[in-house]
Amino acid sequence: MSDDRVVEPLDLEILLEPERYELSAGPTYHFEVDRREFFKFMGAGILIVCALKGAQGQESGSGKRRSGEELPRDIGGWLHIGENCTVTVYTGKVEVGQNIRTSLSQAVAEELFVSVDKIQIVMGDTQLTPFDMGTFGSRTTPTMSPQLRKAASAAREMLIGLAASQWKVDRRRLVAADGKIADPESKRSVEYGALIKGQQLTQTIAAGDALLPATQWKVQGQSAGKVDGRDFVTGKHRYPIDHKLPGMRYGKILRPAAFEATLASIDTHEAEQIPGVTVVRDGNFVGVAAPSAEIASRAVAAIRAEWKAEPQPSNKELFEYLKKTATEGEDPTGDESRYEVGSVEKALAASDHRLQQAYTVAYIAHAPLEPRAALAQWAGDNLTVWTGTQRPFGVRSELAEAFRIPEERVRVLMPDTGSGYGGKHTGEAAIEAARLARAANRPVKLVWTREEEFTWAYFRPAGVIEVTGGVDGDGAIAAWEFHNYNSGSAGIRTYYDVRNQRIEFHAARSPLRQGSYRALAATANHFARETFMDELAHLVNMDPLEFRMKNLKNERLRAVFEAAAKKFSWGGTKAAGHGFGMGGGFEKLGNVATCAEVAVDQTSGDVRVVRVVTAFECGAIVNPDNLRNQIEGSNIMGLGGALFEAIEFESGRVLNGRFSSYRVPRFSDVPVLETVLLDRKDIPSAGAGECPMVGLAPAIGNAIFNATGVRLRSLPMVPNGLKAG
Amino acid sequence: MARVTQLNVNGSTLAVDADANASLLDVLRDQLDLTGSKYGCGEGQCGACTVLINGSPRRSCITSVGAVRERKITTIEGLAKGERLHPVQQSFLDQAAMQCAYCTSGMIMTAVSLLNANPSPTEAEIWHFMEGNICRCGTHPRIVAAVRSAARALKESQPSGSAGHE
Q1: Which of A216, A238, A407, A516 lies 20 to 30 A from A638 at CA?
Q2: Are residues B23 and B52 in the same domain?
Q3: B46: nearest CA in chain A?
Q4: Which of A88, A84, A89, A83 is nearest to A45 (CA)?
Q5: Handedness of CA A204, A207, A213, A219 (dihedral sign)
Q6: Quick check: B162 pLDDT over 70?
Q7: Who wins on pLDDT, A3 or A164?
């Protein structure tokens, strides 16, 4: 040890900051609503408004004087109870399959003492819900849920107050249960709706006060099925792709021949002759609106266009390109781009063992099963768009900017959507549909094809990660240097106790359009870190679990590693050709440890993941079965990026933009999945859609090494099997 | 090109007006407003558009309406009998075998066709039969569990004879 300085603890606030690739949010907004307008829309009732203090991304930019009727501008959510006892909750968050609609319903039901099925949640409608930056970064459970719980408890207290004054009794003797306020002494009870009786009652509350502790939960902490589940198994639910309007036209875009190509020449004459077809050419945007999808396709095929494109790198030279164009680890956003403690050089020089390795991750596609889709309708200068996006307010901003209209004239609605995984932060289809609708003077629906989704959406960033470590003879890590080029800074810091560290993120020029992705850079950074840990353990001849424990003080992380190892029977016997590996870490306020067993066919090189045990802890568990569902899903989705998913590209084109050429996990790829949940009722609930993924790739890679002695340092690891086996 | 003017869907003869080469998926969704069948890939790779043609699973995105004009077409909308869900639908709910649920109708239709042909599939047969359907959220083990429990439920409700309706 060359330095005795105390290692800085990881800052939880920093770790919940959106990643740089998620910061494509537009300008900040203020939000104003007039309570009279609100009641006109909603009818009489109780309205609880949850005001935010110092809300992120919701600064009030307006100097306009506020009238007494105006509600606060920085609102997290609001909740309305009508005379008919209907509870309606409004949040800017959206549902993309993480089942947050269900968890938020549970949260409100808990505090309001009504059953989950009495609660309607209006989500992601820019006209009806308060501004929200977007649904990403596993933020809904730790940030939105407490606000709505607080609003629900305020409503309950207001109802108790109404009953107390109606009955002229001390409110302290009244209780709320099953949608009623009851007086146990006089045995009277009254339904919530009956207490309201035409009144318009508003209360503004501040977020952050005390809530019912998890130990007293009755609704939360229990599994609850997907709300509206019946609509999903009967085909009744309308996804963005399913929305229609009378007189609607079908849109189709003529895509450029390559990324960033410009039009050299175009002839739309033939397409324009097709009855009912409107052709739009606006700069490099070329599209059609037609009476049917089939005619739209025919019209686009009839357009003759020549494109001019600049030479662009291919996936074969990707990693050299990223290194070549990288910055020096200085980043103006100054979040986690550089972290240094102690002296890495001195500690490395004094270490008994030194190791340096480089890891790479490929671009991968989100491939949400529902591709981008939008239905746009103009009424004069007012635009309404139904679309699948994780950032409805961001898309509203994109639309306002694209059409040079004020945001008040744009309404974006987000029906529960066929997944996103971080891939639907943007409004391409919304803008395209709106542009066509304006020209066609009719509503236009645009559904991207699978090839368009694979090509013209954005990708999880590729990256190069270089790690250098020094270990003392007793297995204590003395030095740790970690450089990430391009893939991102989420999860870049190490949770192992190392006194001498240098950690840097280096931005680079990305040949492809890149953006957010489930767990984003945390997957790459954990892959490099946890593989390197395995390599260090091997170097000092220690068991990988023992080596981790030697260097890990964080109790929550130790607990998940121990739980996973126990369930997995770490150190137990394994079949011939099989290998065991582990990985784990801390991300988005969750702690995960993953153990994997692989089987490698030495002749064919075929690698099969046969068993995965995941131990996970994210504070107090809200919905155990849905948590398991998210963990299983993270592992299965993570298999693709770990084993075989990679975007191939050349000269500004994606070469494998279809499911027949881009392999995603299928039933035959799925291992036996076992999950251990650690319920920490003393810790606030965190999200779980992302963190469980990060331990998988290193666990598999380390297991392959354990089985074969072959060390794989690139994701995907075995796109064509294990050739070196 | 010949036009197709009617299709037998979910037990009813419905008027359509489509080129015989038009995809069944487009006609179901755009002309008949049966939007439960989903577009996922357009090349028969993902199974989100699966419907039953005379009881067998078909990818409606690569099936022309001309090829099925004389056949019985069953979509997800035709499975429940009134308010009563088909046992496979009920099992998907009971097993929470979905997240975003965009693949669900295709999964259910594929599972129904499996149980029609093989009311007692083994675990391995279920995993194998579902291979052509993609779930990006990763609910595969739950889907298999749902098919397994639906098979049990169907057997209990219909001790002999065919499993479920077409």
Answers
A1: A238
A2: yes
A3: A659
A4: A83
A5: positive
A6: no
A7: A164
Q: Which residue has the tokens 């609503």?
A: A33
Provide the residue type at A21 as one letter.
Y
Q: A240-310+387-402+409-447 has which fold?
A: Aldehyde Oxidoreductase; domain 3 (3.90.1170)
Rounded Cα–Cα distance for residues A435 and A379 (Å): 13
Q: Domain limits of chain A?
A: 31-224, 240-310+387-402+409-447, 325-363+459-715
Confidence of residue A55 (pLDDT cuts 50, 70, 90): very low
Contact B110, B127 (CB under 8 A): no
In this prediction, residue A205 carries a pLDDT of 85
Instruction: Give the number of A-B residue pairs with CB atoms closer than 8 Å.
Output: 166
Chain A residues near residue B135 by CB distance under 8 angstroms: 369
Return the percentage of chain A with pLDDT > 70, whole number: 90
- Of B159, B81, B75, the closest CA to residue B110 belongs to B75
With respect to residue B141, please indicate whether it lies within any of the assigned structural domains: yes
Quick: pLDDT tens for A65-114.
333 344 555 677 889 999 988 999 999 999 999 999 999 999 999 999 99
Over range A645-666, report the average pLDDT: 98
pLDDT range class, residue A41, cuts 50, 70, 90: confident
> Are B22 and B48 in a shared domain?
yes
Contact A97 B46 (CB under 8 A): no
How far is Cα A535 from Cα B110, in angstroms, rounded to an integer? 45
- Please count the structural domains in chain B: 2
Q: Which of A239, A368, A635 sits opposite B136 (nearest CB)?
A: A368
Distance from CA of A362 to the nearest CA of B (A): 19
A239 touches chain B (CB under 8 A): yes
Q: Which residue of B has its CA nearest to A674?
A: B141
**Residue B37 belongs to a domain with what CATH number?**
3.10.20.30
- Scanning the structure block, which residue is given the tokens 């007793």? A474
Query: Is B20 inside a domain boundary?
Result: yes
What is the CATH number that goes with domain A31-224?
3.30.365.10
Confirm whether A31-224 and A325-363+459-715 share one CATH topology: yes
CATH no. for residue B144? 1.10.150.120
Give the pair of three-digit tokens for residue B52. Answer: 């039953």
Q: Which of B26, B34, B138 sits opposite A293 (nearest CB)?
A: B26
Q: Which residues contact A113 (CB under 8 A, 6 or more apart)?
A: A156, A176, A177, A178, A179
pLDDT at A60 exceeding the cut of 50: no
Q: What dihedral angle (degrees, nearest 10) is formed by the CA atoms of B17, B18, B24, B27?
A: -50
* Domain encompassing residue B112: 87-157
What is the distance in angstroms between the Cα of A170 and the nearest Cα belonging to chain B? 44
* Predicted pLDDT at A588: 92
| CB-CB under 8 Å, A236 with B36 | yes
Classify the complex by whether its ipTM is higher than 0.85, answering yes or no. yes
Please report which helix (H) or strand (E) contains residue A520, including its range: helix A520-539
Q: B166 lies in a domain?
A: no
Q: Is residue A273 over pLDDT 90?
A: yes
Residues B99 and B68 occupy one common structural domain: no
In A369-471, DSSP assigns E strands to 373-379, 382-387, 410-413, 444-447, 463-471
- If one counts every other C-beta atom within 10 angstroms of the C-beta of residue B54, the result is 13
Nearest to B102 among A294, A369, A634 (CB): A369
> Are residues B124 and B98 part of one domain?
yes
Contact A472, A313 (CB under 8 A): no
Architecture of the domain made up of A325-363+459-715: 2-Layer Sandwich (3.30)
The pTM of this model reads: 0.93
A597-627 pLDDT per residue, tens? 999 998 999 999 999 999 999 999 999 999 9
Give the pLDDT band (50/70/90) at residue A2: very low
Length of chain B: 166
A686 and A588 Cβ atoms separated by less than 8 Å? yes
Cα A115 from Cα A119, distance rounded (Å): 8
